[in-house]
């Protein structure tokens, strides 16, 4: 299969490109810089230059592909409205190009806000609806194209897709611990995060591209619910700093923007995904990765 991948040089994207190439697929990766282009070419992928604002490039990539994996996102936390706008516009451009073809569009989504008081499941619809919502409501927008002949698959990633080299949320929480000399959690630390190793996430993306029926919601979740207090304790142990609580109202001041997420309960189950797609996470757990020095 010839697969067009956005975010191909990013954290999850790089692992996904490796997974697709190893499975015998041809990969065309979107690259906005010379460095990203060189990295992709060294892997054996073809490069399409462009970014999320280059909708013509996105359409060309989709038009020439047997399937699309959309993992790119601006992640501009200083201007989330711009990130949401760009995400919605790019998903719409890709889906319009694929309309009527029956070809797959696998897009990245998340598990935040799916449920209250219990882990979110694949049956829970995304609460993000409309252009002003997180990610511009892109999951629901994309799923509307199922009736227009696109094999849409939503890959919902745990809040931390971890591993050596990760510069995401856990890296930011660890950086705050270094800055302040304490590893902190919010409130009583009972908020829970799901987690997945990056290699397991990449394998699930490939399975979704190859196998998932239109309208599928996949949960890239290896561990269902890790209390944030335990995450902070693991970071504190590795850095050799004390562990303490930060009040919810002080979370953003202490952690930066990540504080509002570290206070949220983002537990999610992948029981349905694992059963239907014979996907068993095998990578190390989050706490094991932290203790092994992945963020040290």
Spatial order of the strands forming the largest sheet? 3-2-1-4-5-6-10
CATH fold title of the largest domain: Rossmann fold
Strand content: 15-25%
CATH class of the largest domain: Alpha Beta
Please tell me the overall pLDDT: 97
Total tally of structural domains = 2
Radius of gyration: 19 Å
Features:
296 residues; Rossmann fold; UDP-galactose 4-epimerase, domain 1; three-stranded mixed sheet; 12 helices
Structure description:
This protein is of the alpha/beta class and 296 residues long. The longest helix has 19 residues. It folds into two domains: 186 residues, NAD(P)-binding Rossmann-like Domain (Rossmann fold, 3-Layer(aba) Sandwich), CATH 3.40.50.720; 101 residues, UDP-galactose 4-epimerase, domain 1 (Alpha-Beta Complex). The chain is globular. It contains twelve helices and twelve strands. The model has no long low-confidence stretch (mean pLDDT 97).
């Amino acid at each position: 299969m010839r697969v067009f991948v956005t975010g191909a040089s990013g954290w999850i994207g790089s692992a996904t490109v490796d997974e697709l190439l190893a499975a015998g697929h041809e990969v065309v990766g979107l690259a906005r810089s010379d460095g990203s282009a060189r990295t992709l070419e060294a892997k054996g992928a073809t490069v399409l230059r462009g970014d999320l604002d280059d909708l013509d490039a996105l359409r060309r990539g989709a038009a020439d592909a047997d399937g699309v994996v959309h993992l790119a996102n601006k992640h501009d936390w200083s201007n989330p409205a711009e990130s949401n706008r760009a995400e919605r516009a790019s998903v719409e451009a890709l889906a319009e190009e694929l309309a009527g073809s029956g070809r797959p569009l696998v897009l990245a989504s998340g598990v935040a806000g799916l449920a209250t008081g219990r882990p979110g499941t694949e049956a829970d619809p995304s609460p993000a609806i409309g252009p002003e919502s997180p990610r511009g409501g892109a999951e629901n927008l994309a799923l509307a194209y199922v009736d227009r002949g696109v094999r849409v698959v939503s890959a919902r990633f745990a809040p931390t897709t971890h591993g050596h080299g990760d510069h995401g949320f856990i890296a930011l929480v660890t950086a705050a611990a270094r800055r302040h000399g304490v590893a902190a959690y919010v409130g009583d630390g009972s908020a829970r995060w799901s987690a997945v190793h990056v290699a397991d996430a990449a394998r699930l993306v490939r399975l979704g591209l190859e196998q998932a029926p239109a309208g599928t919601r996949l949960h890239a979740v290896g561990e269902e619910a890790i209390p944030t207090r335990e995450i902070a304790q693991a970071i504190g142990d590795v850095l050799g700093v004390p562990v303490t609580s930060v009040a919810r109202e002080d979370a953003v001041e202490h952690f930066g923007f990540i504080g509002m997420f570290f206070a949220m309960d983002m537990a999610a189950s992948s029981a349905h995904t694992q059963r239907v797609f014979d996907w068993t996470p095998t990578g190390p757990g989050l706490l094991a990765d932290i203790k092994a020095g992945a963020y040290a």
